[in-house]
Amino acid sequence: MATETKEKKNVAKGFQPLGDRVFVTYTEEMERTAGGIYVPESAKEKPQRGTIQAVGKDVKNVKVGDQILFDKYSGSKLKIDDEDCLILKEEDILGVFTS
Question: Is 85 exposed, middle or buried (0-12, 13-18, 19+ CB in 10 A)?
Fold first, then answer.
């Protein structure tokens, strides 16, 4: 079985967040219950995970490429080229995943 390699484009190209804001991409994953029902991430009350694509000049604690955890209801959501994106303040980031 051949594996597909798909180069991910930078959706933040040409976009620069202002001040202490960051531009994040994320995916809403689906979870399957024991009964076979798929529950979208948007129906859950837990934080979400995303990747920082661009940062404003006043951002101090995170950088482009960091995997972060943020609250479900924080920031401004938008869709660019069928990809879920979010603009949020640095203070709304709950944590950074380390490798």
Answer: buried
